[in-house]
Amino acid sequence: MITGTFLDEISHDIPSANWGRLEWAKDFESMASAGIDTVILIRAGYRDRCAFHSDVLRKRHGYLIVQDDLVELFLDLAQTHGMTFWFGTYDSGEHWVRGEHQAEIDVNLAFTEEFAQRYGDHPALGGWYISHEIDAFDDGVMRVYESLARHLKGLRDLPILISPYPRGAKQFDRPFTLEEHSQHWSRIFERIEGLVDVVAFQDGQVLYSELPDYLATNADLSRRHGITSWSNVESFDRDVHLKFPPIAWPKLRYKIEAARAAQVDKLITFEYSHFMSPNSMFPSAAGLHRMYMEWKRGEERRG
């Protein structure tokens, strides 16, 4: 079943739920009842927005936009519900996309150090998430991964997660073949082996007919390099023109069952609160939650 979820309130492609402490507390209760034991902050900052009052980012953006200290709130709620919290790094939205990889590294070294000084001893903190997503080998981003991974392990020796994506037909006019995908990710894993502990490939970019082969390939490649294989079972729908609604239940079930068949170690989703929660701003998410929970209970009865 899905036992982990990203938390996304610093987004650039889905709307804010405009939740405060009461709404988040209610949703963490819902996550716990659904079997979620792992929560991953997808990014603690993006461009001029941040999930806590960061002095490091305020030097970059004097008008830094901060709703609340969501990091402290998420850590405390995770502890209350016996969940593990993974901290997501900063995405400048600028440096690394322009090839200025050292600048991206430098701001993240300072930003994650600031986080560690404030929250690094919190008992719910159980992992790091490097938020820079890629689909192909890129030497500059490899240097970002390598530098940040070593730095994060030095701050607190916890597992490190990435959640990349295949260059699939749903997102690219010239998608990779499975062989090309395999070649790129063999090179990537050779570089990050021993630094990154967990990979959770996004599953929404490839055609449903291709997904089982990609899942099997991803699991095999990661294990060959000693990296734990999860699957990021996207709970939003890439197949409709609206960007992005909750996914249709039959599609979500298909992806869960395909990931099971590939024998990945854990299923996480992007992301429960927007697309699967009964508290979501999208009414259809409540229906998805109901159908998922009914199926989950049936699966658990069957053992």
Automatic annotation (TrEMBL):
Ranges of residues in domain DUF4434: 2-280
Origin superkingdom? Bacteria
What the entry lists under Gene3D superfamilies is as follows: Glycosidases
Q: What Pfam families does this protein map onto?
A: DUF4434
Q: What is the official name of this protein in its record?
A: DUF4434 domain-containing protein
